[in-house]
Amino acid sequence: MNTSIVGKQFELTDAIKSYVENAFDTLSKYQLDIISARCVLSADEKQGKKGFSVEFALNLARKNTIVIRQKDKDLYAAIDLTVERASKVLRREHDKMTTVKGKADDKAQRQQIGEEAVEGVDEIVPTELELYKPLEIEEALNELKNSDRQFYVFNDIDARMRVIYKRTDGKFGLY
């Protein structure tokens, strides 16, 4: 993870830099692919009151950039609050990823259960249809009589798909 720490309107000390780096290290526990992390620390002085502003920008792989801003009178408190908010956002992202994987695992388990239930039923064997040329109904009837099939699917002369089948009374039906 590439990190950059920038100080605006005040000088960064080594203690502040190491504190921010430790904060970035705590964010890596969510195992998200954080490409880069940027921290901008700035001092604000409005109406005689001193304050600090902290901005974290986290670039995640295959996700949008997460930007978190926090203001406080104490610099370390502002960093802590920003890290807390960033960890909440990263935890949500991590939960989204693990939840989607969990749903996929549940689906696979349901399919396995469904396949076990189907084992008691007759096996269905897919076959390719021979729809190369249009046939007359009489030709399709001869094909069905000469085979041991229950039905025969074909295209008739008008290019409509038709089904001819053996009935239980020994006659033939046509759809």
From TrEMBL:
Q: Which organism was this protein described from?
A: Campylobacter majalis
Self-association or partners: how does it assemble?
A: Associates exclusively with 100S ribosomes, which are dimers of 70S ribosomes.
Q: Which residues form the Sigma 54 modulation/S30EA ribosomal protein C-terminal domain?
A: 122-174
UniProt lineage: Bacteria, Pseudomonadati, Campylobacterota, Epsilonproteobacteria, Campylobacterales
- What keywords tag this UniProt record? Translation regulation
Q: What is this protein called?
A: Ribosome hibernation promoting factor
Q: Which superkingdom heads the taxonomic lineage of this protein's source?
A: Bacteria
Which Gene3D superfamilies does the record cross-reference, listed alphabetically? Ribosome hibernation promotion factor-like (3.30.160.100), Sigma 54 modulation/S30EA ribosomal protein, C-terminal domain (3.30.505.50)
